Amino acid sequence: MTAKEEFLEIYNKYITRRGAEELLEWIERTDFFDAPASTRYHCSCEHGLVIHSVSVFNTMMERYYDEEQDNIESFAICALLHDLCKAQFYKVSSRNVKNEQTGQWEKVPYYAIEDKFPYGHGEKSVFLIERKMRLKLDEAMAIRWHMGEFGDKNSNTISQAYNDYPLAVKLHLADLESTYLREKGTSAVAR
Predict the structure, then answer these.
(1) Which residues of 87-116 are buried (b: 16+ CB within 10 A; e: fewer)?
(2) pTM to 2 decimal places
(3) Is 15 a member of any domain?
């Protein structure tokens, strides 16, 4: 099963609230399923964004899901959509690199950032989701603060969000584990 097929299976099985179908239709019109998750850090390859999103869902479910306390729809929304801000964010560009064997300069593809809507990271994902589907408060907080100290540096606000919304902590930890432990080897040059 491809990462896109797994994403769609999880999305359609667990995300059932009003607006979910319209949001998915919008996602399918973007480059979400083809885009990288980053330019060079993790999943910096074609389809990297969807690979990362599915990885975060699987990590959240394996490590943090408690069926008595947690809502699986919230886990699916947060994990699959936390980086929606990266849809239509990257472009394939090229740069010259010297071929070590021939000594010749060659054009090689790479992903560059082309942010046409510079609205932040987590807050941009929340904004894009809410254009089609309402989020619960804890989902919005989790998505907004999933970057932790890698994003906004206001530690008092982050601490308050993590203290008040356990879902935010679970998403942040699953994102970190997926990025730095589970996704090793998925970075590559564009195409």
Answers:
(1) bbbbeeeeeeeeeeeeeeeeeeebbeeeee
(2) 0.89
(3) yes
